[in-house]
Amino acid sequence: MNILELSEQEILRRQSLDELRKMGINPYPAAEYPVNAWSTDIIENFEDLPVIGKDEEGNDVRETPTPENSRMVSIAGRIMSKSIMGKAAFAKLQDSKGRIQVYVQRDAICPDENKDLYNIVFKKLLDLGDFIGVKGYVFRTKTGEISVHVMELTVLSKSLKPLPVVKTDADGKVYDAFDDPELRYRQRYVDLIVNAGVKDTFLKRATIIRTMRRILDDAGYTEVDTPILQNIAGGASARPFITHFNALNQDMYMRIATELYLKRLIVGGFEGVYEMGKNFRNEGMDKTHNPEFTCMELYVSYKDLLWGMDFTEKMLEEICTAVNGKPEVEIDGKVISFRAPFRRLPILDAIKEKTGFDCDGKTEDEIRAFCKSKGMEVDETMGKGKLIDELFGEFCEGTFIQPTFITDYPVEMSPLTKMHRSKPGLTERFELMVNGKELANAYSELNDPIDQEERFIEQMKLADKGDDEAMIIDHDFLRALQYGMPPTFGIGIGIDRLVMLLTGKFAIGEVMLFPQMKPEKKAPQSSIQEWEAIGVPENWAYVLRKAGFYLIQDIKDEKAQGLQQKIGEINKKFKLNYEKPSLDEVQSWIDKAQA
User: Fold this and answer.
1) 115-121 contacts, C-beta under 8 A, 24 or more apart
2) Binding residues
3) What domains can you pick out in the chain, each with its CATH number?
4) What percentage of the chain reaches a pLDDT higher than 70?
5) Where is the binding site for Mg(2+), in residues?
């Protein structure tokens, strides 16, 4: 990278980097730095020194803090602010748990005659964002702030890019906030540094996953891994990502679900198996959908849907309590309670409740006609199940705020689900709706291999009609079923949506560390080779860019003397010492740009 492609602050930081090295200080040392305390722990466990008397105004006077009578700590972190006051300074240090003030006194860190560590290194060469390690004792300042009086200071890492400086005035108004979602998601590392609360969201995510895993492990179920690359995209109705497996010379699908492999393990003799991992669906992106998402799927032998609802609501109540200290969470002014039991409502009843239309016993054409009468966009490729799904999504889904099990789905909507034990045409399936969105999908799993094959065939008919989300027949899965699969309950829970619910976030990008983003847009600029083609040497091409001329045509209306002066100022400002081009040379560049 040419130095002129950097901002002025970046250039200055690199110059500081060079100065540190000239002083014999390694700005990126390899040795371990011994950390024995963290900011929040120091503050929470601080104990004031004993009172030894009263001052003239009657206030308590405590022992003077010293290394001998105070807690000695060794901490490390990033400099987030710095206030120099002559021979002493205050700085805020941010570690993995929070921030703490450190007091840096020249003679304390430079006990010998050489004061360069304070006068040059700390005051001039260290910037906001740099990592340092400090050893010292904990004390309370006159203003009451718990701080660390630094006795030793070590440079641990030099930051070459400046952090956004977020400012808050006395009234709490924030200026220059780093709050653009695209920037925050694309540069999550910066978001985590400067925006309070972002890290907390992901710590809560970790708590959710850890608690769920503990509950499943304690229940005796086995965590497993199944293939992400699959010959057939099965286990759900979704459009897959396709890639090519060079070693096998065949196209493969990135999995859209873990279901069919997990059920193979139930056939193989596992009583209960679960997997937490990524699924991939080549579909749209919005605030609640991301093509790459995390899901937990669980399959348990000899259980059914009724057991599954009981297990699910108890598990979610425990997870919510682990994250928030209670089984309720507030989202946008609404208190959502995960206290068991949850409401249970058949899907056709839900549609009838919201629209007045009873889908029970209606033909595909009748349902399609009703959808059209409501102004919905439906077409001939949509089967009965798809139409019912569209109706539910249009009129019902967003209305269920409190956790609600939507049950008894039509068979057309559930090609992998066991037929209802008492209601012909329906299946033993539920979807858990919370805050207007689906959180979980569960079945009494279909284990009749003949019925399963017939349903796969029906799915292929939908595919022939143009439904690109219809399932493909998985012959190996059918073969596994023919060896016999016990009665089984299965459930999938969207981890990202669960985290959104329990942290009160409304966009899935807020709970994914690195959501997929479109490529960054870059301002168009002529290449160095293109500049060289009109006679501009490489070094001067970078100078022209620094002066704001990104494209060759940008100089065509310039006067030679004016352009020479502009690039000369850049040459002088950054001490480049390039040989100044003559007016004739500059004019020839302009002439060729005009050609």
Assistant:
1) 116/23, 117/153, 118/87, 120/19, 120/23, 121/20, 121/23, 121/25, 121/153, 121/155
2) 431, 438
3) 7-163 (2.40.50.140), 199-342+402-510 (3.30.930.10), 528-594 (no CATH)
4) 99
5) 431, 438
